[in-house]
Design a protein that fits this description.
Elements: H1 11-14, H2 17-29, H3 42-45, H4 73-78, H5 91-95, E1 105-110, E2 116-119, H6 120-124, E3 130-137, E4 142-152, H7 153-160, E5 168-173, E6 193-197, H8 198-202, E7 207-212, E8 215-216, E9 226-228, E10 241-247, H9 254-258, E11 282-285, E12 293-294, H10 302-305
Parallel strand pairs: 1-10, 4-11
Antiparallel strand pairs: 1-2, 3-4, 4-7, 5-6, 5-10, 7-8, 7-9, 11-12
Bound molecules: ligand MTE.
Ligand MTE binds next to loops.
Length: 318
């Protein structure tokens, strides 16, 4: 069993102090990041922190479909990208305490027969929540294995009945600079926007997520509702969603808008298409330190998704 048993093993007990201190120094000096910002090894800084006692027992033996061990709760909740709370990896964890994820309303609009302002509870009440363990592969070339809790986006889409004109789905994050300190500066253009083609949105792998490790999403991971698309780079997983629109034209997603030569709309994990500033051929599997693993095409989900891109030149549609 490789899974750390958080309540009884502290990493400071299994990793000699000089080793983890040196690892931190090493990562601090290794510059890679979406906006060219050197990432701070928040995940390593917090390895000593305790896991919450209330993690349900079923997660002790849970592994991914590919038989991989889960990352720890503290890895997943202290090493984040959520620029609304700052650009450093530990900013979302440190700066999201004032964010209020309830009450929450999601506006559903555009080409649908049942548009409206839906209270989150009403949106969720017909859904059957499942645990799904996916590897999250960030475009920055690190990845983690995360046990999400959620339901297929397709179930929500069927309920609101898109019209025949709906070709894409567009999602937006809430704008609340008073609670989200990163939004007080023009780091990105707010709100954060993401989109999917209709067939991608309907794929059974695509999830609306409300929790992880069987508990409600913490603010830093996108409370109370986010998207997860496991064969795409993590930036497609827009957090704290307040609107879902069904549209005819391809939405302009935030990272494409920022740097369209570096980030596209599709963002399928692809070891053969390098980011202009780094290769995507290999990845760091956190809490590891080195690019020790080859990146898998479509993050390992090719048999379930490759058909959607048949005939497309994926180096052009990156
Ligand atoms: N959503 C919003 N609103 N703002 C962000 O900065 N970052 C994205 C994505 N969703 C981001 C976001 C990126 S780059 C990644 S890798 C994932 O969230 C990280 O999700 P996690 O912090 O839960 O691991």
């Amino acid at each position: 069993m490789i899974i750390r048993r958080p309540p009884d093993i502290r990493s400071s007990e299994i990793t000699p102090k000089n080793v983890y201190v040196n690892r931190r120094k090493f990562i601090k000096n290794a510059a890679f990041g979406m906006a060219g910002v050197a990432t701070v090894p928040a995940v390593l800084n917090t390895l000593e922190s305790e896991e919450p006692q209330e993690i349900p027992a079923r997660f002790r033996s849970m592994r991914s479909e590919l038989n991989e061990p889960l990352n720890s709760y503290s890895d997943i909740t202290t090493y984040n990208n959520f620029y609304e709370f700052g650009t450093q990896k530990d900013d979302p964890h440190r700066n999201s305490g004032d964010f209020r994820p309830a009450p929450w309303t999601v506006r559903i609009g555009g080409e649908v027969n049942k548009p409206g302002d839906y209270q989150l509870e009403d949106l969720l009440s017909p859904q059957r929540m499942e645990d799904r363990v996916y590897r999250l592969r960030c475009v920055e070339a690190w990845s983690m294995v995360i046990p999400w809790r959620g339901f297929p986006l397709a179930d929500l889409i069927r309920r609101v009945e898109p019209t025949g004109n709906a070709k894409f789905v567009e999602f937006k994050t809430i704008v609340r600079p008073e609670e989200m300190p990163g939004q007080r500066a023009p780091i990105l253009q707010w709100p954060y926007v993401e989109g999917l083609r209709m067939d991608e949105a309907m794929n059974p792998l695509t999830l609306m997520v409300t929790g992880l490790y069987g508990m409600d999403l913490p603010n830093q991971n996108g409370a109370p509702l986010r998207l997860i698309v496991p064969w795409k780079y993590g930036f497609k997983g827009v957090k704290s969603i307040v609107s879902i629109d069904f549209v005819e034209n391809m939405p302009l997603n935030t990272w494409k808008q920022m740097q369209s030569n570096e980030y596209g709309f599709y963002a399928n994990v692809n070891p053969e298409v390098s980011h202009p500033r780094w290769s995507q051929a290999r990845e760091i599997r956190l809490p590891g330190l080195f690019k020790s693993h080859p990146t898998e095409m479509f993050n390992g989900y090719g048999d379930q998704v490759a058909h959607m891109y048949a005939g497309m030149d994926l180096s052009r549609w990156y």
